[in-house]
Amino acid sequence: MSETAPLDITGWTCPAPLRDHPRVVMGHGGGGALSAELVRHVFAPAYGGPALADLGDSARLTLGGARLAFSTDSYVVRPLFFPGGSIGDLAVNGTVNDLAMSGATAAYLSCGFILEEGVEVATVARVAEALGAAARAAGVEVATGDTKVVEAGHGDGVYVNTAGIGLIPAGVDLRPQRVVPGDVVIVSGEIGLHGVAIMSVREGLEFGVDVASDCAALGGLVEAMLAVTPDLHVLRDPTRGGLAASLNEIAAASGTGVVLREGAVPVPPAVANACAVLGLDPFYVANEGKLVAFVPREHADAVLDAMHAHPLGRRAAVIGEAVADHPGLVVARTGLGGTRVIDLPLGEQLPRIC
């Protein structure tokens, strides 16, 4: 390459382990490339149907003239209780947030419990109470449910599945295909807290300061953003696979590139320290109470002000923009003036975090 030639990063690649797995591995549930392959090559062809086409956080449906968002998720986190929340809080907030990423106000949830033989009833009651409290706080009603029990040794105490449904307001159209070059990328706050909180409890690690999960329902924050303008382009909550997975999915679906300013991404010191010790990248660590938004540039300042006025958006920050260059690729400008590719993770750095 000559010294005057423009930097072409579209051909950059990173070696990845062989992904031709005849059996399911933990990475298939991590929200990264392996998860995407399983959905693309196994589930989507088997199910078919146009409602699956977007493969977003929730399906957008029309029923009887109403625009609905519909989502389901299963929660297998270990441990069941952790700083900042529990599997019960996750089960509500995770599904409510998936609906909110379509702009919908969650209305009703279903809840299925899968219990392992031998788990203490008091533990089940504690999870149920946390789930009910989280539902009330989010303004959503648990309308139906189911319970199954599996033999001892065939579960992990308590698994929970929730499905949710909500109404999408008129004029709201949130999907990655609407992203265009020039859109401003905003994250609603500090990243990586949930994954580090789970890891600290699970592995008995200490990082010099207590770390609590950011688990929270984002419906109110989304409503505040939409009150500024319904013309937001896309929202995602960066859970499994972290911020990196969400940005890569949006870039691929929109056919745009994404350029981040690495120093602008809010990473709390405890997360940075934990990742430095363990060799992890905060961009890939899971969150449970954050969102990333692609906003038309003309609305970005007003949307950011509205986020700052909401308790869940006080640390919101502009971290980059969508560009026409290197479509489908996410890159970060480092503090040293370099550029690094933020690729789609293969699996999850920390398994069983939600």
Automatic annotation (TrEMBL):
<feature type="domain" description="PurM-like C-terminal">
    <location>
        <begin position="181"/>
        <end position="326"/>
    </location>
</feature>
<dbReference type="Pfam" id="PF00586">
    <property type="entry name" value="AIRS"/>
</dbReference>
<comment type="similarity">
    <text>Belongs to the HypE family.</text>
</comment>
<feature type="domain" description="PurM-like N-terminal">
    <location>
        <begin position="57"/>
        <end position="168"/>
    </location>
</feature>
<protein>
    <submittedName>
        <fullName>Hydrogenase expression/formation protein HypE</fullName>
    </submittedName>
</protein>
<dbReference type="InterPro" id="IPR016188">
    <property type="entry name" value="PurM-like_N"/>
</dbReference>
<dbReference type="InterPro" id="IPR036921">
    <property type="entry name" value="PurM-like_N_sf"/>
</dbReference>
<dbReference type="InterPro" id="IPR010918">
    <property type="entry name" value="PurM-like_C_dom"/>
</dbReference>
<dbReference type="InterPro" id="IPR011854">
    <property type="entry name" value="HypE"/>
</dbReference>
<dbReference type="InterPro" id="IPR036676">
    <property type="entry name" value="PurM-like_C_sf"/>
</dbReference>
<dbReference type="Pfam" id="PF02769">
    <property type="entry name" value="AIRS_C"/>
</dbReference>
